Amino acid sequence: MLTDLPLDQLESYRSSQTEPPDLDDFWAGTLAEAAGHDIGLRLSPVATGLTTIDTYDVTFRGYAGQDVRAWLRVPAGHPGPLPAVVQYVGYGGGRGHACENLFWASAGFAHLQMDTRGQGSGWSVGETPDPAPAGPQVPGVMTRGILDPASYYYRRLYTDAVRAVDAARSLPQVDADRVAVLGGSQGGGLAIAVAGLRADLAAAVAFVPFLCDFPRATRITDSYPYREIADYLKTHRESVERVHRTLGYFDGVNLARRAGAPALFSAALMDATCPPSTVYGAFHEYAGPRRMLLWEYNGHEGGGILDEVRALEFLREHLAA
């Protein structure tokens, strides 16, 4: 069943999200602090038994100079710098196993898959801790530090995601002028955020993105992870304004307004996890060239493999030498 607005209303929908007046200063200071730490890039070859893909265990320094793990996968024996895809993972997941997620390297890209701090136990393995103090929160990470943008969990994760692009550009296997970001759900939200926080991307891809249009998302869906915020506000009744103030610094709607790289989005009309209006809220604000893949009879799986096939065509168009 449809979970949200019909298509004609999605095309005219605009988010009610407003921008914090110091949004740009907040992110400039956060990213400048992170950039003060050397990227600390470390690579170790991994023996996977695969003959067509070379895999490396990667560590780089993200938020506050803290170590973040990743996998690098490249076509075996490729002699020169490659276009790169930096991929972010969906909610609850980590970078997974070294032999998983072989699509992008098989298609000829250098593929850096970032681990997700403090997650990576829900449906795939992760190895990056989130050492920040948590405080009172609903289980999950959506409300970790949510009363202040400086302490909010996603300040750290968004910074890691930006630094992953720095790590990719530092790799000898990568052509630094041809780097794209990509992800689905939470990973799609991270791709939008990074596109808004950097001006040097070749492209961005966001499948059924999460972390968009919080004022609407937290009120129209009963599904987790957005439901974590509603659960928190059920008991912290006097913190509604304060929580939404924090979320404004991390909303894909606000960060999309700052993005310039060509972008491919996807949305699904039967998606209860990331309702399509929330995706369109960010899509309509995206400042760079943008396209939408809309799946009428799908839920949060979106277009599945067809999303990736269309993204492959899109990235070959924008990352061609």
Describe this structure in words.
The protein has 321 residues and is an alpha/beta fold. It has one domain: Rossmann fold. It has eleven helices and nine strands. It has helices spanning 7-10, 23-35, 103-106, 153-170, 186-197, 214-220, 226-235, 240-248, 252-256, 276-285, 305-318; strands spanning 42-46, 53-61, 67-75, 82-88, 110-114, 174-184, 203-207, 263-268, 290-295.
Which secondary structure elements does this structure contain, and how are they paired or packed?
Blueprint lengths: L6 H4 L12 H13 L6 E5 L6 E9 L5 E9 L6 E7 L14 H4 L3 E5 L38 H18 L3 E11 L1 H12 L5 E5 L6 H7 L5 H10 L4 H9 L3 H5 L6 E6 L7 H10 L4 E6 L9 H14 L3
Parallel strand pairs: 4-5, 4-6, 6-7, 7-8, 8-9
Antiparallel strand pairs: 1-2, 2-3, 3-5
Largest sheet: 9 strands, mixed
**CATH-assigned homologous superfamily:** Alpha/Beta hydrolase fold, catalytic domain
Uncertain spans: none
Give the helix tally: 11
Q: Architecture, according to CATH?
A: 3-Layer(aba) Sandwich
Helix content: 25-40%
Report, as a whole number of angstroms, the end-to-end distance.
Answer: 43 Å
Would you tell me which CATH topology applies?
Rossmann fold
Strand content: 15-25%
Would you report the number of β strands?
9
Our Rg estimate from Cα atoms comes to 18 Å
Count of spatially separate domains: 1
Shape: globular
SS-based class: alpha/beta
Average pLDDT figure = 96
